[in-house]
């Protein structure tokens, strides 16, 4: 798919971060970037970056489900942006694991593309509208951008 998209549209492909690591078949084309969202799904440092695959950090702590979720907030968490979870410091694009620093890389690593919060929409026919998605990000996104 990447070859077709690159040739036909001169665009790059990004995949969601629950794909198997490059050491497992099928392998990931090095021109594809991975959007990482949760550390229990993959380890961006060892699964992708150490294999020369770029990662966009959509860390689970800033993942939200704008309309309904049993475990995720409906808007971006301002406290986490500035103070971090109770056991760690504030967020940064290169921080994938808040408990083991060896799972993180220097901020200037060229394979760390930066951050992007994820707004998910899993409510079927009652899905999130554009205005609901806007309000879920409105207060938190500028603060997150400032910290990142």
Unreliable sequence segments: none
Q: Return the domain count.
A: 1
DSSP helix fraction: 10-25%
Give the topology string: H per helix, E per strand.
HEEHEEHEEHH
**Can you tell me the CATH class?**
Alpha Beta
Provide the β-strand percentage band.
5-15%
Largest sheet: 4 strands, parallel
Structural class by secondary-structure content:
alpha/beta
Gyration radius (Cα, Å) is: 16 Å
Which overall shape is indicated by the principal axes computed on the Cα atoms? globular
CATH architecture: Alpha-Beta Barrel
Biggest sheet: strands side by side, in what order? 1-2-3-5
Name of the CATH superfamily: Glycosidases
Q: How many beta strands in the DSSP annotation?
A: 6
CATH level 3 topology? TIM Barrel
Number of helices: 5
N-C termini distance: 31 Å
Please tell me about this protein's structure.
- With 148 residues, the protein is an alpha/beta fold.
- β2, α2 (44-48) and β3 (55-57) form a beta-alpha-beta unit.
- The longest helix is centred in the first third of the chain and has 8 residues, at 2-9.
- It has helices at residues 2-9, 44-48, 78-83, 130-137, 140-147, and strands at 14-16, 33-36, 55-57, 64-65, 112-115, 119-120.
- Helix content is 24%, strand content 12%.
- The strands form 2 sheets. The protein has a 4-stranded parallel sheet with strand order 1-2-3-5, with no helix packed on it. Strands 4-6 form a two-stranded parallel sheet.
- It has a single domain (2-147), classed as Glycosidases (TIM Barrel, Alpha-Beta Barrel).
Write the layout of secondary structure elements.
Elements: H1 2-9, E1 14-16, E2 33-36, H2 44-48, E3 55-57, E4 64-65, H3 78-83, E5 112-115, E6 119-120, H4 130-137, H5 140-147
Parallel strand pairs: 1-2, 2-3, 3-5, 4-6
């Amino acid at each position: 798919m990447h070859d077709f998209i690159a040739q036909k549209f001169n665009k790059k492909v990004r995949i969601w971060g629950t794909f198997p690591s490059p050491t497992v078949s099928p392998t990931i084309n090095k021109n594809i970037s991975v959007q990482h969202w949760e550390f229990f799904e993959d380890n961006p440092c060892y699964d992708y970056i150490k294999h020369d695959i770029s990662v966009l950090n959509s860390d689970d702590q800033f993942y939200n489900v704008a309309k309904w979720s049993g475990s995720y907030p409906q808007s971006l968490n301002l406290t986490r942006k500035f103070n971090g979870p109770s056991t760690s410091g504030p967020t940064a694009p290169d921080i994938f694991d808040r408990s083991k620093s060896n799972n993180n890389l220097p901020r200037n690593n060229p394979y760390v593309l930066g951050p992007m919060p994820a707004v998910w929409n899993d409510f079927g026919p009652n899905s999130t509208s554009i205005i609901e998605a806007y309000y879920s990000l409105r207060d938190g996104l500028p603060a997150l951008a400032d910290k990142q």
